[in-house]
Amino acid sequence: MSVGIRIHRGATIQLKGESEKILSDATPSKTFALKPDNFFGIVPRLMVKEGERISEGAPVFHSKQDPRILFVSPVSGTVKEVVRGAKRKILKIIIEEQAGDVVTHKIPASKSLNRENIREILLKSGAWPFIKQRPYGITADPDVTPKTIYVSTYASAPLDVDFEFLLKNNKEDFQKGIDVLNALVENPVILSVDAAFSGFFENTKGVELLHIIGPHPAGNVSVQIHHHTPINMGEKVWEVRPEDVVNIGRLFDNGQYSSQRILAVAGESVLQPQYVKTKIGALISSLTDITGFDKSQQNRFINGDVLSGKAEAPDGHLDFHNNLLTIIPEGNHYRMFGWLPFMDNKIPSLSKTSLSWLFGNKGYNVDTNMNGEERALVVTGEMEKVFPMDIYPMQLLKACMANDIEKMEALGIYEVIPEDFGLIDYASTSKIEAQQIIREGIELMIKEAG
Amino acid sequence: MNFLRKKLDNLKRPFGKGQKWEKYAPAINAFDTFLFVPNHTTHTGAHIRDAVDLKRTMVTVIIALMPALIYGIYNTGYQHFIQTEEAFTFLDAFVHGSWKIVPMIIVSYVVGLTIEFIFAVYRGHEVNEGYLVTGLLIPMIMPVDIPLWMVAISVAFAVLIAKEAFGGTGMNILNPALTARAFAFFAYPTYMSGNKVWVSEASNIDGISGETILGTLAAGGNVNYSFFEMFQGSIPGSIAETSALFVLIGAAILIFTGVGSWRIILGSFIGAALVGFLFNLWGANALMSFSWVNHLVVGGFAFGVVFMATDPVSAAQTNKGKWVYGILVGVFCILIRVFNPAYPEGVMLAILLMNVFAPTIDHYVIQGNINKRKKRWASALKTA
Questions:
Q1: Residue A428: its chain B contacts at CB < 8 A?
Q2: A356 contacts on B by Cβ (under 8 Å)
Q3: What percent of chain B has pLDDT over 90?
Q4: What is the pTM of this model?
Q5: φ, ψ of residue A278 in degrees (nearest 5)
Q6: Is the pLDDT reported for residue B383 higher than 80?
Q7: CATH of domain A260-362
Q8: Closest CA to A44 of A100, A104, A85
Q9: Interface mutation target, options A333, A351, A419, A436, chain B, most CBs of B under 10 Å
């Protein structure tokens, strides 16, 4: 099999607690939540009030910048609470599930589907936020015709999911979704697959297959775009996650907004790591009721992977996009003389100042300890080792810190999103918060350059 | 361990947020984090972090310096006793050397760390570990009989002017340890060169012949040391730079752990060997015809390129830039040795010179990357 992209730089961090290939249904979730923060760059305008009845698929809020972009309820029920933070910023909208109606949209016959009516249906039904746009990883702009759409089924982050297993019951809907997306772009959808494994994604029709091999972050769409057709200034590319392709396919099948989410619940603290099926925004506890977790210790619940996911309270809700829920122990403990080289070799390290590379074959135990304190940037060359793009990561970070827009642009800010710097966060000797710096840099770019 | 932890937590209470001595927290934190890796957990960004931190990195450098330092201490005694023509054992030499060198290390650490602590408190950041290495390097590259007050002043100059004036750790242009040496070299030349300074208590000895090899060559003399003596390091010189053998053991540690850049080290050796070889062919003076192999093992060349040129802050930061930087350090070192007999050892000035040009080298490497990207944008516009 030909390999489209072979990545050498990067790191596969083998952790304990990988999900077994068992698929269970989550226990019923009493409430569901929508979090506007899951949609980078979106300012929400509420369309419901607390206590209001709402149907499944009915809009909850829309984007302030573009009122056509709707965010809809995954279930029918009552708007229980609008949780606000500082400056009355909307943190989440909690909906209590009750039996009720489902909004159904009229879908034209597949022959008469065209770019315009597909776009309209996606917007109206609330499926539009499934599409993310590069540069910046924002919710797609409906007025843009992108160069192409990327769908990556190659997941490389620690404990990441196996999409072949995750979507094994959704093959037809996946194909249907691909057909719909193909109608939105000139060039066929690019479907990246694991070059080392041949599964049903290989048989998808109407796509350009991109075979990928290599360590994390090879599964990140940024890396794939960079090596396939890098983004130039002014160009737009879209990205849809595999399960959302299924959700889009299903929408065009029955006219109803689909919010299926199958998650791998993984991590050292999970007692029975496995795949659990639920809906977007469900309670985390509805998943952990099935898998269990070690209650004897403090744990961190992460929507996403350990490198780029978001922490959430145990009684919180799932995020919009993630297919992975990771639970690992908190690390608020001291280690005496832990800074000595070759001490505590059980902690995974990419540096040869630890012997951890000898002990990795069964997977590492990890926790959330910083393993040091933040320092000035001293060590050079370590970021490049985990950043497989022709971009100078440290110089880009410094340009972001200096708010130097021209330099950021020249150094490749259009080609990256914060999650690409997850491994840099991890590997950095100076414990810098690279993802945060890039996120702030991108926010500045959006504000200043649009 | 728990007992110690509790004691420390009690001790730290008055330094906590909103407490009386909050301002001085960096000072107590430096001691605390020396004993314990703190219990801080990740709050933004990646939830798990590598075991490596700056302390571990710096301590690795210190470990790499140990073979050269221990040999340097022994060699100090050795050089003294062969001049006095006394009978001596290894232990005698070692004790004599320790008696000279340990006070210099203490002075260097006390003066340097005091300034670092003051700046940490003043600027409100934690104490950076970089000085642990700098503070050890400074005595290691000084002549053995330099008065302690000169060490103190050189250290103060280096930390204040070369480091803190530029914004502290990570911001300096010049390598602080070499700046200290350069300061001493130009401020107190009689203590830093000549044929008496390289042997301890030389002034008490009659008929001394403690000239360094490069000094001898520059003065047109003949070298009476074998290659093995030069390689092993039983020759006069600054305290810990004489032994290429033990420096190379340090280099192996740095390269294996990935703490030192092999590109810079290898580049420097290639650059120096190449220029040395070309001068061998030319051979117009004693230093030119000095074999290129010998050039690599005498003077502070090996020590300089392994421990000073690789300082990541003052070196080039891009991988391509590291090659260019390394090769030029080697080239300039030999050029200065051969063409500037006033400075028989060229490596200090070569590295300081390249420290100044490192940002320029990086600029062109990065500009190359930017130009490539802009060219791609332009060609995309054309086809569109």
A1: 50
A2: 51
A3: 62
A4: 0.93
A5: -155, -155
A6: no
A7: 3.10.20
A8: A85
A9: A351
